[in-house]
Amino acid sequence: MAATTLMACNDDHNVLLDKEYNTVAGLPPFEQIHERYYMPAFKAAIEEYRNEISLIKSQRDEPTFRNTIVPYDRVGGWLEDLSSIFFNIQSTDATDTMEVITADLLPILSRLEDEVMMDEKLFSRIKHVYDHRMEEGLDSVQLRLVELYYRDFVRSGALLNEKDKKRLSEINEKLSQLTHTMSVNVRKESNDNYKLVIDSAADLSGLPEDVIASAAERAEKAGLSGKWVFLPQAACVFPFLQYSDRHDLRKQLYEGYVKRCRQGGDNDNSQIIHDIAKLRAEKAQILGYKTYAHYSTDVKMSGNPEVVDTFLMNVWPMALNAAKKELEDMRKFARKQDKNAVVEACDWWYWTEQLRKARFDVDATTVSEYFQLETVRDAMLRIASQLYGVEFTVLEGAPKYNPENNEVWSVKQDGKDIAIVYFDWFPRSSKRGGAWTTSFRNDATPLDGSERRLPVISICCNFPQPAKGAPALLGTDEVETMFHEFGHGLHSFFARSNYNRTLRHVPHDYVELPSQINEFWAFEPSVLKTYAKHYKTGEVIPDELVEKLSQMSTFNQGFRSTEYLAASLIDMHWHSYSAGDEIPSAEKVEEEVINRIGLIPEIAPRYHSTYFTHIFSGGYAAGYYDYEWAEMLCADAFEAFRESGDVLDKGTAARFRKYCLERPGDYDALEMFTEFRGHRPDVSYLLKQRGFVVPDNKTKKR
Questions:
Q1: Rounded (to 5) percent helix, strand, coil in the chain
Q2: 232 in Cβ contact with 253 (< 8 Å)
Q3: pLDDT at 11
Q4: Cβ within 8 Å of residue 539, ≥6 positions away
Q5: Contact 178, 186 (CB under 8 A)
Q6: Strand, coil or helix: what is 563?
Q7: Does the annotation count 162 as an active-site position?
Q8: Three-state SS sequence of 329-355
Q9: 701: burial class by Cβ within 10 Å (0-12, 13-18, 19+)?
Q10: Residue 7 pLDDT > 60, yes or no?
Q11: 153, 288, 298, 500 from 127: Cα distances, Å
Q12: CA angle, 16 then 17 then 21, to 5°
């Protein structure tokens, strides 16, 4: 369908043209939005955006902070709101029509961004303010804002000649198309193009009842009544790998998962990611950087790829040694059960679970019975209330973009609304995989003193869908994921700034600090006892099980660390090529990294390149290491709570909120972290947390 058709006028009222909505809390009127409304609304919002830019650059007065930087900080609000609505729904409830709209829209938005960021008149005003910034009596936040905007323009090509500007714009437009196609291919491959179909109950040996019931429902929906269907989605794959007694079936499903988008056909991403890497290398060169990794890390806490590589390789040897020991233990255990047992990459989860049961006498299915989704959610909200003094209530009458799957809550502090949050827990064929936190609306504090719009946050997960009528029980990984994403939400609730550019805009390797530190409270023994209750009996989780879960915190950490680090190093390798370099195939890139670091064949990188959406379509290019970097930060930061003697200490939480959640966008993130902690980030806390080094006596006393 052509864009001109999509933009045709209709007699009915297009609610997206209203900008402000007559709904509960002014939320987007999701149930009134039709797909045909999007392109006309985008057309109008883009026109308004251009007009706002024209007003700034056509001024005759000398450029100042007040007449140039402040209005520029406020432009495009309607376009941003509209983009948030469209792209968030496109991620959760995509349709063929929305995919067409997206394919048409992304190049338009890419060209628009380049048009603005390469506008000589606009940049000349920004540059004038930057050059004279010390003469205006600006405070430190205002100075930072000027410097950030100047840097944004330079990194977007404002200083380039016309030839290079034109080429950079072509690259950006092409990248917008390629990254979208890559993501769509992964979604299709994960939902539509491969399935493991089991037609004999005997082949379900070892699988828990809820996993079997969900597979039967998927089969029913696929017109395969009486059979069981497993898709190459994480929510399907990993429970199967963990529990199925059948090595051959584990291998089939695992290979269906890890070979996604690299077996030929319409959804093959091999050439697409090669082209993305090549274009990014050229873009970096045009902008004056050696590689795209240098371009990406230049604005992060790490500063350059050499620091990243040193950081990752400092952790790698200890992680690999731990993983090799885990493999040795697993093999011995497996051969005691079956002298012919093999441990391949597809078997790691199964034998880990069997060994876990034997070593700790803990069955993951039994553990999940203490973690009903609603109970975990309520505890998560309550812990946030205890730490930060906020209150959560269901927001009645709120519009929902997917009524069957949305929960909507209001967030208050001291009786005043501070945010709204949507929860979307389960997978569906229209929804991309993984878990993420985003926003439908956000705003900086108005400079005129008017009331601040409430940020509207959306938290999306893909927890295993329970069978109809059955409770949603979470494994420990799902519990961790819920707390993780809610940590991003807390950051969004509390972030404060007078300016949009510095509101939550922290270095990318800082982004995961608020989320990953929030995971700590999920399994802290003293906290766990307050909420983990058996979904049938209401029995509080036994002390013995709490102790075992604590002991298990370092179990399998070698595997978890190596698969993550390997993916991070593959990411950095993809983005280490210079323009003009011959970039090999995805298989060769991965092979080069795996051989260099000595990754054992029984462990695969967490993501193979052709479905590695984080780095090829999700904003983590040369930045997947961000998670490990942030784990260093949060292991260090959480120690402050332990040092207080109470992991729910309100005083420590207030300081963490002040320095690490509210204002890190207004100030240098490293300085803010150091202000909170009293020292620069120390990787030793991360290593101790994973059991890679023996804690010293001081640490043992804490």
A1: 60, 5, 35
A2: yes
A3: 56
A4: 533
A5: no
A6: helix
A7: no
A8: HHHHHHHHHCCCCCCCHHHHHHHHHHH
A9: exposed
A10: no
A11: 9, 19, 20, 19
A12: 60
Distance separating alpha carbons of residues 158 and 114, to the nearest angstrom? 9
| Residue among 485, 512, 524, 590 flagged as catalytic | 485
Cα separation, 459 vs 377, in Å, equals 12
CB 512 within 8 A of CB 630: yes
**Cβ atoms < 10 Å from Cβ of 224:** 16
| Cα 199 from chain centroid (whole Å) | 36
| Cβ density class 64-90: b for 16+ within 10 Å, e for less | bbeebbbebbebbbbbbbbebbbebbb
Residue 412 makes CB contacts below 8 A (sequence gap 6+) with 390, 391, 392, 393, 418
Specify the amino acid at residue 236: C
Place of tokens 């040092």: 643
**Identity of the amino acid at 218:** R
- Helix segments in 231-300, DSSP class H: 234-243, 247-258, 270-286, 292-297
Q: CATH assignment of 270-360+558-616?
A: 1.10.1370.10
Give Cα separations from 8 to 38, 107, 370, 495 (angstroms): 11, 19, 53, 40
Cβ-based neighbours of 574, under 8 Å, separated by 6 or more: 273, 277, 589, 609, 615, 622
Q: Tell me the β-bridge partners of 436.
A: 460
pLDDT tens digits for 368-385?
999 999 999 999 999 999
Which stretches does DSSP call E strand in 33-95?
none
* pLDDT tens digits, 519-536: 999 999 999 999 999 999
> Which pair of structure tokens corresponds to residue 133?
């910034």
Q: Tell me how far apart the alpha carbons of residues 609 and 586 are, in angstroms, rounded to a whole number.
A: 6
CA 39 distance to own-chain centroid: 27
Non-local CB neighbours of 193 within 8 Å, separated by 6+ positions? 265, 267
CA distance readout (Å), 280 to 169, 433, 473, 611: 12, 25, 42, 18
**Percent of the chain clearing pLDDT 70 (strictly above):** 97
Joined tokens for residue 275: 């082209």
Q: One fold for both 3-159 and 270-360+558-616?
A: yes
DSSP lists the bridge partners of residue 405 as none
Mean pLDDT of the region 616-644: 96
Q: Report pTM.
A: 0.89
Residue with tokens 């999007």: 38
* Chain centroid, CA 518 distance in Å: 14
Residues recorded for the chain? 702
Residue 437 DSSP one-character state: E
Q: Per residue in 456-476, is it b (16+ CB within 10 Å) or e — as a string?
A: bbbbbbbbbbbbeeebbbbbb
Tokens encoding 223: 């017109």
Residue 695 pLDDT greater than 60, yes or no: no
Q: Based on C-alpha coordinates, what's the Rg of the chain?
A: 26
Q: What is the pLDDT of residues 44-58, one digit of tens each?
A: 999 999 999 999 999
Q: Quick one: tokens of 563?
A: 């698969």
DSSP 8-class letter at 405: T
Q: Which of 442, 501, 495, 444 is nearest to 149 (CA)?
A: 501
Q: Report how far apart the first and last C-alpha atoms of the chain are (Å, whole number).
A: 63
Give the domain ranges of the chain: 3-159, 194-258, 270-360+558-616
587-620 pLDDT, tens per residue? Answer: 999 999 999 999 999 999 999 999 999 999 989 9
Distances 589 to 90, 555, 586, 598, 694 between C-alpha atoms, Å? 31, 30, 5, 14, 35
Q: What is the DSSP letter of 14?
A: -
pLDDT digits (tens, 9 = 90+) for 462-479: 999 898 899 999 999 999
Distance CA 492, CA 619 (A): 18
* Bridge partners (DSSP) listed for residue 410: 393, 420
Percent of the chain past pLDDT 90, that is, above it, reads: 90
The whole-angstrom distance between residue 539's C-alpha and the CA centroid of its chain comes to 34
In 3D, which of 66, 214, 92 has the Cα closest to residue 462?
Answer: 92
Cβ atoms of 551 and 595 within 8 Å: the answer is no
List the CATH code of the domain at 3-159. 1.10.1370.40
Tell me which H or E stretch contains 441: strand 436-441
